[in-house]
Fold:
Amino acid sequence: MAKGPSPQRTTPEPAPKEDGNAQDFVVQVIRSKRRTKTVSARLLNWYTLEVRAPANVPEQELEQILSRLIERARRQRAKLRLFASDEILERRAQELNRRYFGGALRWRSIRFVGNQQHRFGSCSPRRGTIRISERLRTVPQFVLDYVLIHELAHLREPNHSSAFWEMVYRYDKTERARGYLLALQLEDDLAFAEQEGDPGGGDAR
Structure:
């Protein structure tokens, strides 16, 4: 696999700067005196890899370890690219419908669209259509599942009533997914608003 530009590597101070390359990572290295042996890494979001290392690990050794961790993270992230087509999106929605709504929901179409830059998804109950932002093609499955469940719930509850949120929160990864989306800064404040021009619909911002 061809390697992209070298990822940025930073320490906690100053704050990391985005390198602007969505195919690569911004790497945050946190050295700790309490950590004596192991170097660990975790994906904070789609673009950010947090690495924790002992304070006294030699720089050259850390660079070699970072290289391996970054390649491992790239492979892990690649496995999350599960929703490349509208057909796969439709099948996933049907599965979530069976699991969380007893298979009772019906819609005319569900697909990815490229014109939603300020919302994750939208639902028009009257037209029976659900649209998901292209930006979510590459997020982890649990994140996209949350957005799908949110929009599916609008087919039954057009507004953000307590009954609506009760349905959404049947999904046990709701809070985790909302936190992930916030970390990606794909939205301003995780607010969900009514779809303009369709009082009977909802959209995920």
About this structure: The mean pLDDT is 77. Residues 59-79 form the longest helix (21 residues). The CA atoms of residues 9 and 27 lie 5 Å apart. Residues 8-79 form one domain.
